[in-house]
Design brief:
Blueprint: H1 10-21, H2 31-42, H3 44-49, H4 52-59, H5 63-72, H6 78-91, H7 96-106, H8 113-133, H9 138-150, E1 154-157, H10 161-176, E2 180-182, H11 190-195, E3 202-206, H12 213-224, E4 228-233, E5 246-249, H13 262-279, H14 281-296
Parallel strand pairs: 1-2, 1-3, 3-4, 4-5
Helix pairs in contact: 1-2, 4-5, 7-8, 8-13, 9-13, 10-13, 13-14
Length: 305
C-alpha cells in the first residue's frame, strides 16, 4: 500500500517508521526498505547531502530500492523525498550548538598524537549527542519520566557494555525512589525476574547494533506480560522498538574500538533529571534522606580518614 499523503517533516517520517515496525500503519515495507528508511531518518544530515547512489552504498541497498521506497511513501520520486531532509536541516536550529562545538574542537591544534585521540572522540561524542537531541520528543520524554517516577517497580536490563549503562541508570533512579533494580541482580535468571513483576511495572531495556538476543527476548517477554517497556537504543530499525511503549534513539558512531557509550550516559543523566522534576518534593526528600544516611554512617571522607 502507498501513503495517500507523503510525510512532510522528519518527525512525521520518524513516527511512521515506528508505526510500521509496530504494525500500526497501513503502509507495508520489506525489511530492507524499512531498515533503510529507519537509518535515513536517524541521520537526517547524511540523507540531506548525499546522492542516491552514495546513500545506497552506505545503506547496502540498490538506488532503485530507495526510489521505490520514496514512491511507496507517496513521494513523486527520490528527489521529492530528499527535499524533506534538506528543508528540515536548513531550518532546524537544534543542530546549531553542536555544530559550533564541533567547529571549535576541530580548530584546536592537535600538538601530540595522543591528545588528538581525545579530541576526535570529543567531536564524535558531540555529534552523537546532537543526533539524539534532534530526535527528542517532549511528550514521550514526559510520559517515560512519569512511568519511571510512578511505577510500583522498575527493572533495568542491559548486557555487555550496556550492563554498565543499566547499572548507572539503576543507581540514579535508586537515589530518587524505591524498588529499582537491575532485572537479574540476584542472578536467578531473567524469566524468574520477569515473573515477579506485574501490570504497571516498568522494564527499561538498552542495546544497540549488534543487538544482544537476550535483551530483545526480555523486551518481548515483558511486553507480552503487559509490562511497560522503555527502550533506549540506536535507531528505528532496532528490534527493541516493536515491544516498547516508548523508544529513544541515541547514535554511537565513533573511532572507539567498540560502541561508544558517552552519548548514552548524557541521555541517562537528562532522563534522570526529568524523573526528579516529575517527582518534585518527593525527589528532594529522598535525596535529603540519602545524604543524611551517608553522613550518619560516615560513608564519605574528605582528605585524610
Amino acid at each position: 500500500m502507498t501513503a495517500s499523503r507523503p510525510p512532510r517533516s522528519i518527525d512525521e517520517l520518524r513516527d511512521l517508521v515506528v508505526s510500521i515496525r509496530r504494525q500500526q500503519s497501513d503502509i507495508l515495507l520489506g525489511d530492507k526498505a524499512l531498515d533503510a528508511l529507519a537509518k535515513l531518518v536517524d541521520a537526517p544530515e547524511r540523507a540531506a547531502v548525499r546522492t542516491i547512489s552514495e546513500l545506497g552504498e552506505l545503506l547496502s541497498v540498490n538506488a532503485s530500492t530507495l526510489t521505490r521506497l520514496a514512491k511507496k511513501l507517496g513521494f513523486a520520486g527520490f528527489s521529492d523525498f530528499q527535499s524533506v531532509f534538506r528543508a528540515e536541516i536548513a531550518d532546524d536550529e537544534r543542530y546549531f550548538y553542536s555544530r559550533q562545538a564541533g567547529r571549535l574542537l576541530s580548530t584546536v591544534p592537535t600538538g601530540v598524537e595522543e591528545v588528538g585521540v581525545f579530541e576526535r572522540l570529543a567531536r564524535e561524542t558531540a555529534a552523537n549527542v546532537d543526533g539524539f537531541m534532534g530526535q527528542l520528543d517532549a511528550g514521550a520524554l514526559h510520559e517515560a519520566a512519569s512511568l519511571l517516577a510512578g511505577a510500583p517497580r522498575v527493572r533495568v536490563h542491559g548486557v555487555r557494555q550496556f550492563h554498565a549503562f543499566a547499572s548507572f541508570l539503576t543507581y540514579g533512579l535508586g537515589m530518587l525512589r524505591s524498588d529499582v533494580a537491575l532485572l537479574d541482580a540476584p542472578r536467578l535468571g531473567e524469566a524468574e525476574a520477569l515473573s515477579q513483576l506485574s501490570g504497571g511495572d516498568v522494564v527499561v531495556v538498552a542495546s544497540c547494533e549488534p543487538y544482544t538476543r537476550n535483551v530483545v527476548d526480555v523486551a518481548e517477554a515483558a511486553a507480552a506480560r503487559g509490562l511497560d517497556v522503555v527502550a533506549i537504543t540506536d535507531m528505528r530499525a532496532s528490534p527493541l522498538v516493536a515491544p516498547s511503549r516508548h523508544a529513544f534513539f541515541v547514535p554511537h558512531a565513533s573511532s572507539f574500538f567498540s560502541n561508544s557509550m558517552a552519548a548514552y550516559i548524557v541521555f541517562a543523566e537528562g532522563l534522570l533529571n526529568l524523573v526528579a522534576r516529575v517527582m518534585g518534593d518527593a525527589a528532594v526528600k529522598a535525596l535529603a534522606e540519602r545524604e543524611k544516611l551517608i553522613v550518619d554512617m560516615r560513608i564519605e571522607t574528605r582528605g585524610r580518614p
